[in-house]
Amino acid sequence: MTRLALPSETGEGLLGGPVAWVRRNLFNTPVNIAATLVALWAVVRFLPPVVDWALVRATWVGDPAACRAAGGACWAMVVEKYRLILFGLYPYDQQWRPLLAIVLFIAAILAAAHPKCWRRWLIYAIPAVLGVVGVLMWGGLFGLPLVTDDRWGGLPLTMILAISGIVLSFPLAVLLALGRRSRLPAVRAWCVIYIELWRGVPLISVLFMASVMFPLFLPEGVTIDKLLRAQIGIILFTAAYLAEIVRGGLQAIPRGQYEAADAIGLSYWQKMRLIILPQALRLVIPPLVGQFITTFKDTSLVIIIGLYDLLSSTKAALSDPQWRAFYVEGYVVAAMIYFVFSYLMSQYSQYLERRLSAGTRRG
Amino acid sequence: MPNDDAVISLKDVNKWYGSFHALRDISLDVRKGERVVVAGPSGSGKSTMIRCINRLEEHQSGTITVNGTEVSNDVKAVEKVRRDVGMVFQQFNLFPHLTVLENLTLAPVWVKHMPKAEARDIAMRYLERVRIHEQANKYPGQLSGGQQQRVAIARSLCMRPSIMLFDEPTSALDPEMIKEVLDVMVELAEEGMTMVCVTHEMGFARTVADTVVFMADGQIVEKNTPAELFGNPREERTKQFLSQIIRH
């Protein structure tokens, strides 16, 4: 990434003021001048109509007729349907439970993201949060009415699928990556077969098989919950991709690091855990987070097996004939929710990279 | 027959890399407290030989015994040998994601299960000995090459090894840093550490070594005291090598 010189560094900026800054940074070369002009043109051309539609002529409360009369964005539809979009078909009077689940998830993510919480207990805390969310959503305990997972939906379902998918596939991915580089031929072969097999099929067909074909192979009377099947499918699928990313990191670590770890007497697992993986994972933070974002967004594919994740419940909200015309607003809101989470993940990955490389930068 | 007071004993050791015969019938005994310098042209198998001693490389035939333990495919035996044998590399190989102090305490804590405070005390003592204790909380990347190599020596010493292997410890250093590393090695030798050292520093070999081993083409060509080997080499190949490095 090229870094623009700050005016305060060059000294002249302090005297030259904003005009000098603009001239130096936006109009300094022919290519930059062209890029600046194109960007300006795009802003002038597209921003006013968007603002006009989304804010000026928008309707925030009212019925479809009011929306049509105003002619702008019909946010009234979202206001009317937000509980269906956020929580799907979860029983209306129990929706504080998925709401609490969302809050718990966000709190857990924030805690896990903070360096002060990088302690051993975090390894147990994350599955614990998943368990608590499960109990909270499912109920049947502590006086909570039972709500089976065919009625779960919306943002909590998306978060369950994505967070479990990421958290549980990651250790599997590390084992697969280590296995693929193992000196034991059988271990290596199995890991290669696993990774190539899962990478060779699209997620949509994995979900489809988990939903439709897998039950056919189960003995009579045995059923595995559909959500669980989809979740396992996502975990196994994601693990194959993550494994290749982790392997890339392992291969980038110089041989001398392995040898030094061997020479001081560390066992294989100590060597990997204390020396190799901390360095290898640090190198592959950008592609790892890229895969996390992909997994988060790909959970929307569960729509094809009839699970009501955020996108499906948005679609369900739009099936109301009264509001059907305002599908753009519905999808804009869903897209914004996806965007906020993805953007935060990507920002966090940049922070993490900076933080982790701070101490070890060669100087 | 392996020599009874030998702490390292190599007997008819052979190693191939594919069809390349890297070590040919190497037999060598190292006594407790003996300082052995291994010299020879590059590609002669010096590094390969000492890397076989702690199983960084596998030999294909012959036996290697360290403190009575045979180095073999047995993981437990190899771990035991590695606890007894410290190694210093040409490229230092410090762990860049850990501080100097963490580099030193890692193995005592994880391999020897030493309490952290005790490991820390020992680490600081060795850092003082290699005159670098004020850098304990820096990362390796912030140190010069000579400092890094001294840290690497201290890291090995923290495991209280009975034998130290040095694999060209000064070859990657800038000339002005070689002395500070050699000084540490000389001190170590004077304290009676058993050392096997691959090096091109003939001055070090002359002053410190009990024995100089000259290798070429995967074989031990000649083995003698430094005075004899440098002053009165018997083999043609040795003379040729010595004349080259002296001219250089």
The domain tally of chain A reads 3
Write down the secondary-structure element order of chain A: HHHHHHHHHHHHHHEHH
Q: Give the CATH level 1 class of the largest domain in chain A.
A: Mainly Alpha
Major sheet description of chain B: 6 strands, mixed
Uncertain residue ranges of chain B: none
Helix content of chain B: 25-40%
H/E element string of chain B? Answer: EEEHEEHEHHHEHEHEEHH
Strands in their spatial order, largest beta sheet of chain B: 6-7-8-3-9-10
Q: What structural keywords apply?
A:
heterodimer, A: about 375 residues, mainly alpha, 3 domains, B: about 250 residues, alpha/beta, six-stranded mixed beta sheet, four-stranded antiparallel beta sheet, about 40% helix, about 25% strand
Written account of the structure:
- With 363 residues, chain A is mainly alpha-helical.
- Chain A has 3 domains: 7-56, no CATH class; 91-146; 153-356, Orthogonal Bundle (MetI-like fold), CATH 1.10.3720.10.
- Chain A has 16 helices and 1 strand.
- Chain A has helices spanning 7-10, 12-26, 30-56, 64-70, 75-87, 96-113, 120-138, 154-180, 185-199, 203-217, 226-252, 255-263, 268-283, 285-298, 310-317, 327-358, and one strand spanning 308-309.
- The longest helix of chain A is centred in the C-terminal third of the chain and has 32 residues, at 327-358.
- Chain A starts with 6 loop residues before the first helix and ends in a 5-residue tail after the last helix.
- Chain B is of the alpha/beta class.
- In chain B, the strands form 2 sheets. A 6-stranded mixed sheet of chain B has the order 6-7-8-3-9-10, sandwiched between helices. A 4-stranded antiparallel sheet of chain B has the order 2-1-4-5, with helices on one face.
- In chain B, α3 (100-110) runs parallel beside α5 (145-157).
- Chain B starts with 5 loop residues before the first strand and ends with a helix.
- Classes of the chains: A mainly alpha (363), B alpha/beta (248).
- Chains A and B meet through α12 and α13 of A and α2, β6 and α3 of B.
